[in-house]
Structure formats: C-alpha cells, structure tokens
Amino acid sequence: xxxxxxxxxxxxxxxxxxxxxxxxxxxxxxxxxxxxxxxxxxxxxxxxxxxxxxxxxxxxxxxxxxxxxxxxxxxxxxxxxxxxxxxxxxxxxxxxxxxxxxxxxxxxxxxxxxxxxxxxxxxxxxxxxxxxxxxxxxxxxxxxxxxxxxxxxxxxxxxxxxxxxxxxxxxxxxxxxxxxxxxxxxxxxxxxxxxxxxxxxxxxxxxxxxxxxxxxxxxxxxxxxxxxxxxxxxxxxxxxxxxxxxxxxxxxxxxxxxxxxxxxxxxxxxxxxxxxxxxxxxxxxxxxxxxxxxxxxxxxxxxxxxxxxxxxxxxxxxxxxxxxxxxxxxxxxxxxxxxxxxxxxxxxxxxxxxxxxxxxxxxxxxxxxxxxxxxxxxxxxxxxxxxxxxxxxxxxxxxxxxxxxxxxxxxxxxxxxxxxxxxxxxxxxxxxxxxxxxxxxxxxxxxxxxxxxxxxxxxxxxxxxxxxxxxxxxxxxxxxxxxxxxxxxxxxxxxxxxxxxxxxxxxxxxxxxxxxxxxxxxxxxxxxxxxxxxxxxxx
Length: 539
Hints:
Layout: H1 8-15, E1 35-40, H2 55-64, E2 69-71, E3 78-80, E4 83-88, E5 93-98, H3 112-123, H4 141-144, E6 159-163, E7 166-170, H5 192-196, H6 198-203, E8 211-217, E9 221-226, E10 240-245, H7 249-258, E11 263-264, H8 269-279, E12 283-295, H9 301-304, H10 308-317, H11 321-329, E13 333-335, H12 362-371, E14 380-385, H13 391-406, E15 412-417, H14 420-428, E16 436-437, E17 440-441, H15 447-455, H16 469-480, H17 484-501, E18 504-516, E19 520-521, E20 537-538
Parallel strand pairs: 1-10, 14-15
Antiparallel strand pairs: 2-3, 4-5, 5-7, 6-7, 8-9, 9-10, 11-18, 12-16, 12-17, 12-18, 13-18, 19-20
C-alpha cells in the first residue's frame, strides 16, 4: 500500500460514514493550538476508570486522568505524580500524602476523599466494575465485594481519610510492590460530580489530566481539548486530540497516507511491508509490553475435562509462529516463548518457560491431540474482532497451520466478530465456545500484571475462567514477599503451572507500531504502545 497511489477524495469516500470528522478539512491549526487527528476504536463500555480494562478506553483515561503515580513513557518506571509521598514501614500499611494545588478540570480540588471515594466505588459489588479485583488486597474488600451474597459494608475499612491531603491504606498482607501498581488508571481520583450526576458524568467525563472531553459520538469520534488549567508537569503541547473511530485499520492507514489523518497507532498487516518506505522516519516500530495469546473457555467442560491439557498443548505445537510472524508481521512480532514480555527483561521475570510447547512440531502436535481425545466435536473455531490489529490474517494463518498439522481437512475455521466492542461483550460475558484472542497490554511493568489479572481465580481479565489453587497460592506468596528477586521466582513458579496446564497459548510478543503525518513532530509510543499524546506538537 503505497502512499503515492492514494487520492484524498477517494479515501474520504471510503471513510466518511465511519469518521466524517477526519475528512474535508485541512490542518486544524498549527503549533500549540493544532489538533491531532488519531485513529481509534469505540471502547467496550462508557469511559469509567474502574470499568475500563481494554486498550481503546484506556487511551482516553490516559489523557483525561492522572493518578498517584505515572509510568515514565520511556523507561516504564513509576514516579510520584499526584502523590507527594507514599510511606510504609512494613509494606502492608501505607500513608499517602498528596501534592497541593491539584484540581479537576471543573475546578473541584483533588483531595484524599477523591481517591478514597473512587476506590470504594470501584470495589463495591453493586457497582459491577471490571477492575474491582485490583482493590482486593485492601482490608475490607471482602465486606464490600463478597464472593457470594450481598455486601456487608458500603466502604472498605482499610481506607481512612486523615485530612484533605492524607489518607491511609491497610492491606490484608504484605505487598512490597503495591505502590508501583498505583499508576494504573483504576486507581485515579474521581470528582464529586461523578457521584452526584453519574449519568451526566458518563456522557462527558471530567478528570484531572491534561485534556478534557469536549464531545463523544459513538461510532464517529471523541474530541478532547487541552485543559489550560492543568497543574501537572506534563502539559499538552497541542490544542487537543480528535480520536476518530475506524472499523478497519486499513482505511485508517489509507487516510493517513492521503493526509486526512495524522496518527495511526495500529499499522495494518497489509501495510507493514511498505510502511518504512511510505513513512520514512515517521514510522515507529519498537518493543512493547504486549503479548498476543489464544485463550480457551475453561468454563466449558469440553475444554476443561481431564486430558484436554494434551489437546491444548498439541494445538500450541501445531502453530508455526516463526512463519506467521515473518510473513504477516514483517518484524513487528516475535514468536512467544512464555506468558510475559521481553520488555520486562530477565530480572523482571521474562523467561522461556513455555519450552517445547511453544515450538512448532506438527507430528508431536497431532499425537498429543489424539492422546487427549481429539478436538471437541472434531472441529476448532477461532474467534476475534477483526476491526483492528490484522486479526483475520493471523487467525486464517493459525488455522492453516493447525489443519496442515492434523491432516484432516479444514477442521479449523474462523469466526470473525465485526467490532471490538461486540467481541469484548462476548468474552466478558463468557459466551465463547472455542479458543479466542486474549492479547494483553500491560497495565504496569511488573511480571505480576502478566499473571494475576489473567489467570488468578476471579482475576479481572480472566475471561477463560482458569482456576488452579497452586497457581493462586504462588501468586499470593509472591505478592507477600518483600524480596523482589524471590518474588520474581515465585511468579515464575506460578507461570510453570501455565506451561503444564496450557489454559492459554502464547502466540507472539507484539511491538508497538505507528505512523504519523508530516504535520506532527515529537511523536512517541510509551512502553505500553500508547501514543504519548501530550508531547506531540502540530505544525
């Protein structure tokens, strides 16, 4: 897909129904007041910090909110931001002091209560927040979010407001790296308007970040504009960002090349071969804390019955990762060898624990699948959304690889889902019948984040409902230790259980890839592959 072949009007004709705001106009101003036009996909739910645990909604939260800590875009290190200090003598009881002068964009001050009320809301069972498990370490969580029955309390006893700038947190157990998790958007503060006019707030979220939401039309675009009163050090260097909805990232790339869009942070597979030539130094390809996997619906007996671990392992060995990543992804993916990410580094917990199960061996794959009783019903269906990420291409390739290994004809087929929101609805309501895409973009740069949310019993992103008491016990042990090196070893021991049970097949580590227009400068992706929007300059 070469840039020289595209005509502006033709590209707009394709995209107009999806992203009218991207077409028809030229540059929306230059310098600090210019607007960045960036591709996007509708999030699964309305924007709500504790209910958003997917990439598209996360991009918005990253612009509209700031929390106690913020992860350095280049190193991933967690630095205090709204927090002035987080103190502890036992890694179990913490005193958090806020910096003065922080406010929300509606003028309301950010106080200790802003955090405590937000966290209590997030944790309470009645509010049905996806990220509630992130608060399960706090004393009193079981009272507001019991495993069964009605809540016994309205707030967690482990959260106490001391004054406007100070609150304390009591954890159930020692958790030495708990402060490092506080840059995740589930932990951001909320203004009183969130509670007094919840529906109104959801229509137009109000936060304390460098941007404020101006408008959102589902299926079209969200407009964010620089908040000039933002008190933080990372003030926006542009006038705002228009997040333009596309249901096909090929169309987004076409609009980028035609000058109708400024930034695409998901370069389609079809364009990867020519992206460097099309864009020159405006093409970004860098390692990221992202892993693509295939998850099994362990809540279905045909996939979780004894012996099926052989079938799951066999299917992993039937996938030719080297060939797929080379032919489709042009150096933007690397065959996975474990359930974490190379971006963590070996000291951070990255290993090659998948071993032979992640190595292509069609003969062994066929034998294991037969020994395990064969594919349920003799067939296999892979499912993913196909509006972003070139997912249809890799699913077809995986099925071809499996079919070739088994030699029984087209027993593996693809069930494409048109939009990311619809797909997320299926996975989060546990309506999958076969393996489904479960890629993971880290919330924070710790091995714990690659394991606990996805595989711990009841984890916030455990959409396959895998459950293993040994795994849970090792995660608990790792969280409690104050020795970071020992904690990593315990996490890796838990990961070995994944290698044994294979509830999820690691596919490949994903680089962050992006392309941008000549209107922009200082474009960069953070370690999570999200554009650092506040640093971008226009014109």
